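Annotators were shown the component list below and the corresponding predicted structure, then asked to write short factual statements about the assembly.
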Amino acid sequence: MDMEFSPEDLAFQQEVRQFIADNYPAELRGKQDEGEELSKEDFLAWHKILHKKGWIAPAWPVEYGGTGWTPTQRFIWSEETARADCIRLMPFGLAMVGPVIYTFGTPEQKAYFLPRILSGEDWWCQGYSEPGSGSDLASLRTTAVSDGDDYIVNGQKTWTTLAQHADWGFFLVRTDKDAKQQEGISFLLIDMKSPGITVRPIITLGGEHEVNEVWLEDVRVPKSQRVYEENKGWTCAKFLLAHERTGIAGVAASKRGIEKVKAIARTELDGDKPLLANPFFKRKVAELEVDLTALEFTELRSLAGANAGKGPGPESSLLKIKGSEIQQRLTELTLEAVGHYGAPYFRGFGEGDNEHPIGPDYAHRAAPTYFNMRKTTIYGGSNEIQRNIIAKMVLGL
Amino acid sequence: MDFTYTETQDMIRDTLARFLADTYDFETRQKFINGDTGRDPAIWTALAQELGMLGAAFAEEHGGLGGGALENAIVMEELGKVIGIEPYLPTVVIAGGALKAVGGAQADAIIPEIIAGNAIIAFAYAEPQGRYDLANLKTNAKKDGAGYVLNGHKSVVYAAPWATHLLVTARTGGGQRDTDGVSLFLIDAKLPGIVRRDYPTVDGSRASEVYFENVAVPGDALLGSEGAALPLIEQIVDEATVATCAEATGVMQKLHEGTLEYTQQRKQFGVPIAKFQVLQHRMVDMFMEVEQARSMTIMGTLKLGLPANERMAAVSAAKAKVGRGANFVGQNAIQTHGGIGITQELAIGHYFKRATMIEGQFGSVDHHMDRYERIVLAD
Ligand SMILES: Cc1cc2nc3c(=O)[nH]c(=O)nc-3n(C[C@H](O)[C@H](O)[C@H](O)COP(=O)(O)OP(=O)(O)OC[C@H]3O[C@@H](n4cnc5c(N)ncnc54)[C@H](O)[C@@H]3O)c2cc1C
Ligand SMILES: Cc1cc2nc3c(=O)[nH]c(=O)nc-3n(C[C@H](O)[C@H](O)[C@H](O)COP(=O)(O)OP(=O)(O)OC[C@H]3O[C@@H](n4cnc5c(N)ncnc54)[C@H](O)[C@@H]3O)c2cc1C
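Structure shown to annotators:
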């Protein structure tokens, strides 16, 4: 057992660092530093650069466009991108539906969709949750009724992240009302421009337009856009949820987050000393670092398991629970650090509006981010549900 | 020992609660906080003139009902229950408290204006470098003939965009963090040289950065004695802190009730989610925090009249406990609601935002635990 990087890994790390330094869009960096809300084009700018380089999908098998990196190289990649504060790539195509398609899809589906996911041509959204079906996802009621070569889809989805940008959505729909809940569900790929789809914004606590309601009224979907067998969609869904949960640990991003909190606490004053010298505050930062180290090494152990060919199992729930709690504590410490300047609400930079936010630059997103990040213990399977999973699947209770 | 409220106090609570139930439903509140000025001035006028509520905590000789800190706590708790943004805290509790403490001609002139609803007073005390230290002041007032010339920058002054007057802390002597040399002024908000940058706050109110640029302040604007106002400022901030604990109690109670109600309606896995024991225990923990917040508010309120050290220890104990409780109850209310908890549409999220900002108002948990330790555990 050891935790040293090999000389090849170190060379790879150097290469990655250099690539990011040479290619990360300066304009995007500026917007991030100012805390501006990012547009679809902003999200895609970095995506397209990585696609051109061939580094867009490190986790995918090489035959479908992956990089063929070892898990250690992938780890280095995620560390370096977080260290350089690169924006997070949208997971819906790359981390969610892509793996479902290359695992369960037909040759035609693979040939059509996978290249478009890699290039960023299609923006994907995830249509799982419904108003009546959140934690109890299998109770979903959106129906798809067979009509020749098509399905006619009716129902309502909700919490659909960034559906306002989406070209395609992957949806769970009920194709058999009489079967046991999990056994009557199918996995459909739906063109978001189809007649009968309406997307309505839901505004979240920090003022963001990040999630939506999606209404489907008599939407016609070719059966060729069903992934895997009819009524076997739950298999795809479960596969995908496990993928969703590993990414959610966010270790590298939280490391970067701790550095940001420290930088703020070195600038903010407490009497005649920096806030970071305040023993109470310092202790909280240190505790967070210790917990993050525990999460990091737990993730590394599961990564080592993946090196040995084991897929992510129910223990990925642990990564999700601890990872999300740490992300939330980071936002809490940031809000605490900025003191009075957490209160001003800055509506954002309007068109041609160069008014400056109130207080120091690092302060004006502190409260909205804190409010927004409450989502991390709710989405992707709430932390209560994750604990239920561990109790049942790991502890055997 | 007697923890019952008087008949008058019960009446104040009932009258106010009924009025707010009629005028301050969530949709109405959202409409006016998102409007141009961020408030509905008719509500303040009605509180003053129809309900006589702004006089509850003032002496009868000034036209009030003869109450004090308990009445303030009652009003603040009821405002908390509707996440009210009315400037009761800075106007009545803080400025009113300062005026009651100094008495004399200034009190005789301004208190009736407060009671009548004509005066709104914002408290300009925090500065960019100062965090929660009331004496850490760069704003200064230089003697100039019979008056003063005021210069400086005050941060995040809640209610300043609506204010007729500003209550300002400033240095008339001493170094930036000295306890001596601090003075308190009550000035007209429209004096030449006062520049404001107004903005909404994340918890639904309005505030300003206030800049004083060679503002000529008359000599009679000074409250208390020159250079020796820190004890008075500490006292009124303690009164405000306890009043904020009372507000927090109202906010937390609503967060808890809202969660109880929602979990009994919301079904997943074929049952109301309130049936899941892990959620039940969490709601029990929230309940216990609400009850303790109420207890600590009463404790703090009753001890406001004690000598400074005992008062400060009691207030810090109350604020630390309530701050932690507000954090716990707020976060868990959202978590227990699931996705619906993080939308702007539901009231619960707005209660959560206010609970969050209360945590830091007049000092974080760390700040108050530190002050408590310095007083109580000093050897
Ligand atoms: C910001 C955000 C983005 C999202 N993006 C998407 C998206 O793109 N696509 C998509 O399909 N969905 C998305 N979701 C939905 C998300 O997956 C659901 O919110 C989540 O599954 C919880 O469901 P719910 O909100 O209906 O809460 P509920 O299921 O109603 O849960 C309410 C509370 O009850 C608890 N609870 C429920 N069942 C149990 C139990 N058995 N034992 C103990 N406690 C329980 C929950 O943990 C929670 O605390 C998103 C959600 C958010 C907040
Ligand atoms: C020092 C001591 C003094 C005591 N004195 C008295 C006394 O004076 N009179 C008297 O009547 N009894 C007394 N008891 C007994 C006490 O009431 C029981 O220990 C208690 O009810 C737990 O029962 P148990 O020990 O059988 O544990 P169990 O009931 O087997 O419980 C084991 C664990 O499971 C948890 N648990 C059990 N049921 C649930 C549930 N439904 N939901 C969630 N968690 C659950 C418990 O909290 C505990 O952590 C005493 C016990 C001790 C240790």
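Statements collected:
1. The radius of gyration of chain B is 21 Å.
2. Strands of chain B lie at 121-124, 140-144, 147-158, 165-171, 182-188, 194-200, 206-217, 222-223, 267-268, 271-272.
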